[in-house]
# Entry
Amino acid sequence: MDIQEKLLQLPFTFQVLVAVFVLLLIYLNYTGVSKVERGQAPPGPKPLPVLGNMLLLNLKRPDDSLCELSKKYGSVFTIYFGPKKVVVLAGYKTVKQALVNHAEAFGDRELPPIVKNVFKGHGIVFSNGENWRDMRRFALTNLRNFGMGKRMGEESIIEEAQHLIRSFDNFKGTAFDTGWPVNYAVSNVVCVIVYGRRFAYDDPRFQAAIGRCKNNTQLFGSPYVLLNNSYPWLKPLLKDVRDLIGLTDQTNEIQGYITSRKETSDKSDQNTTPFHDNNLLFSVVNLFGAGTDSTATTIRWGLLLMSKYPHIQDKVHEEIDRVIGGRQPVAEDRKSLPYTDAVIHETQRFADIVPLPDTHITNCDVHFQGFFIEKGTPVLPLLSSVLRDESEWANPYTFHPEHFLDDQGRFVKRDAFMPFSAGRRACVGESLARMELFIFFTSLLQRFRFTAPPGVSEDELDLTPVVGLTANPTPHKLCALDRS
# Structure
């Protein structure tokens, strides 16, 4: 009689006890091995059933909440957005180690429900694997062909800067919202790349397209999208999510422009290569979303900060007048304008345009800083914690251009300057954005002095951001006074 037959002859209660004991041994053995072989999971606050740690988060500024939690739990910690487990990386050294030194392991993008519904794995930003590699390479090649970082691209930006100056001139020194003209100008740079032409700022079709793009970008960062990503079953109840899907479906206009620009090609293989219509369409959507809003928002912050701190604006004017005079600023002037360059960099750092970037996901098991992170774990590199790392910046919560200057007033690069992220998923259009920021900002400051509206003091200008996917300035108006 074998062991199985003997066990079957025992009383049922005893059989159950034996089974429980065996399962307990298996469990203890497995968990014991896993702790030894895998290592400890990152610490974090204890989650509640269903809610996770949502009660600890300010849904309007989750980045602030996560930065505070990092002070308690360390630079690598676990948070639960509802039932979804996310590992947060905080501080310059930790974020750099993950995105640069472990670029492959942390290089994939998480595709939450709303992203899957809208982009379906197409384009550059929200795709992975071979599709992402092919589309990123395609985008970089075409941006370089356009002249990203070269004279050809620079001439297009200079031309658009002149259109923007004329737009500001039309207000004759009266107070106005800088938002839409700046958005139109930066969008036109992308339009020249994608469509081969620019559009007039008063073109109703152009205005509507840019409005949809801007609204879409803000909706992506709304608390309701965060809730949908944590609780997908809430989608029918969340108006912002429904609006977002509807807005993204309104891409027929972009598709029409793409079609008109296509050269005659073999239609038979369009859907068997990465370069089919959906990939091209959503790559263009990505270029407009990432290439317009963040750059335009940074320029708006720069003009607001010049109005808020006129003594800093005075120094920028003095340097531009002394070095450039009345001629058109060009990209090469950056080397001769260290203070102006420092102001632009500090604007990017202080404004913290993308406080909560898109979440990454581990594509393999990772041992990181003594912790074990399983394959498929969403990972959030907290860029706010890098740009305001108290161990890296002398005055992290103050607008302080001297962060980028040495004792002799020369510009100095800072490793902890990561507004474009880092590693494999760094912004594909970084070189273009840097050129735009310098030429637009320098051209505007050469021509105008920016001030608060009449009756409003500099102290009354509000620097509180309105946070969506990007952190925009609070709605405001400025005066652009002609210096010529």
Q: What stands out?
A: Residues 11 and 17 are 10 Å apart (CA to CA). The mean pLDDT is 83. Residues 277-308 form the longest helix (32 residues).
